[in-house]
Predict the structure.
Amino acid sequence: MTPLRVLVASEESSFVELATRVIASADHTVFVAKTPDQADALLTATLVDAVLADGRSTAALACLPQVELRTPGAALLVAVDPDDGNTLRAALGLGATGIVALPLSGDALLGALARVAETVALRRRAPGTDRPPAPEPLLLVQRMVDGALLSEEELVRAALLTIETLVREVRPRVELRFANEPVTAPSADVPRLLLGEIDARVASLEIEGGDKDARGRALAIGGILAGLLALRGSRGERAPSERRVISDRELFEALQRTLSVLGPHKPVSVLVVPDDGRERAPESSRTDATACVGRVGEDLVFVLAGVGAAEAATRRRVLAPDGLAGVASAPQDGRGAADLVRVAKARLLRARSSPFRAVARAEPLSAVVDELLSSPLQAAGAYGCYPLLLSLGGLSALARQATDEALRAGPCIMHLGASAASLHEALADAERASGGKLSVHASTAPDGVYGVVLVGEAGSWSCVGRDDGEGIAAVHAADPVLADRIARSMDAS
């Protein structure tokens, strides 16, 4: 199994002791944080592959946005009583990508980490080979020398691998100083580096501590990174756009003004969507609450004043009906303007990597199931799929929450010790309990393939899978593209 770096966030000593013992038994490295401040200090110096947060602790849950911001792509696992609907909603609302049931089971935790390890192994390797990841930046540089023009995806992947390798190989502090500002790796500025929001001219690379060989490797890797970013910055000006490109400073100032006007107790959300050239005028009745503040890079940035996470999800369906968008809301994702934009952009990057986008045209429904269940990790790219372990009662609670707010959880694998018939019965109970706010559409084929689409006030939730007679394995997500795709397949059958 690929060794992982796991952060355990909890104020409960018994939880920390059990989780640490189980995680260490699989030869993973464990870090512990009891408060958001401790987590912030640790994440400034260390990249983690996953966080296990105790859902009973408000302080532990507050660590999730920090991990998502500072280590994009890390698995956000939360230990929750599956029948505790309020805590489950809070965890998923904070971006949790996996739920581990309480009371904590060593086997369940190891199973979740095994799934994360598979994803990390894929991210650290070049697709389609057994070659370790470190040489990939070197090979990409060789392709540059040969005159190849790398794609945006290759550049981002190479930069991510470069930074991960740099931090893994050289434990001391590493500072890359650019023409306009320093970027310390790893830090909260790393997502800005990957998204190309800073000047690409490298002025210097400074390393403190570490042995001679480690410093030499860091200098070599830093040189590769400089070459990658220089190439990215020399690809020429993009076609002019009618939308004004604003600077980070202007964007953050506009957001800060919105935050200050609303005050500390009013919500505000940021929506980032790709600029595909079509008009996205807000609903006339909401013009005062939604404003496109401009275009940063290739993406449009909307400020949703006085709009919380639930309404932002609804607005997302108007502004990004294809589901390709990133949403961040205060206060759960941070009060700072910079944090909101960075979290929203990280979520947009995750949406671009969704495996569901790759199967949008698969026919029939069984093809969708086979595609999703056969290689979900490979299809998900850098962000991967993580296990969502729920009891059947927990699934009913999750279904009810689909009526309240669109879940931001990424694609998840569910392993339920129940038949498809039991699943449908639980969902029917949730539909009746919703008082008409939730409609459930289910279909089961003779070969055991089934699909479920739940339509609520804030969006759609979908689930597809197979029933092997002993239980069901399924993939689910609050993904409107997949939900519409499954609904069409069910209508066709």
User: Anything to note?
Assistant: The CA atoms of residues 314 and 345 lie 18 Å apart.
